[in-house]
Design goal:
This is Rubrerythrin diiron-binding domain-containing protein. Helix content is 73%, strand content 0%. The chain is built from nine helices and no strands.
Length: 300
Amino acid sequence: MPLLRHEPQGGVRSLDELLGIALALEQEAVRRYTQLAALMDRRGETDTATTFRALIAEEQDHVQAVDGWAHRLGRPTPDAPAFLWRLPPELAASWEELTERTRLTPYQALSLAVVNEQRAFAFYSYIAASAPDEPIRTHAEALAREELRHAALLRRERRKAYRRERGRAEHKPTRADTPAELERLAVALLSATAAEHSALAAHLLALGDGDGATLLNRIVGEERALIPAGSDAAASQAAVPDTVPACLRAAVTASERLAEAFGDVAAQAIDELVLTESLRLQEAVVGHLALLAERIETRG
């Protein structure tokens, strides 16, 4: 589980446990987003504060939904604080680190929020994968999809913050309305990103970073595996940086563009197959981003 350093403590063996964990996670998200909204308000970053307040409203709706879910199942509303210890420790640690920064920018705040939504997605995915029965698996998968949708929203807002901080023009969100359109888009994007990563891997090897080159080549293989057979490969048109850290940052940027594009598609999807497939593709790219982040962290 690259987004979580350790597997969650214990498995979820009942819907009551899953209800308690979901409620604890949603209430914690409300608390943290409230802190970030207030911080952004104090700094005059009204657009970012508005984004966090919108997420607060969504998370509060989810809290009520969990209450309703418990009621429909004939169960009492869980005692959320009793389940806080079941949440991934990475969530609390990263929130604390973020709020302690004295010069927190909107881009940094949104980046952390993206990572934590992805961690929540990984957490629920683990629960689903290890579920002892179908009801737990189905509900955990639904919770995971919702966290991934939040991550897609935050990625778009993060890109806006990035452009605001650098005075860049707004971009037009990527869109695909049918499965065929998504397939064509995915072929183009994955092929181009794989070509860019392949060129970066070759340069990393030439610069003496064999481990980094191996990692990028692994990512290239996984990206190409996502492309339907028979599709033409693209050639990289991107300039290759001349240092190892710059190459790794360029690899991250390429994957972020890819994840953002699939997130845009998912956020605007009007077709269930498009939504499911774009989320699947985004999930794969998010995993690549986590691997690259770990590589950069390892190098210091």
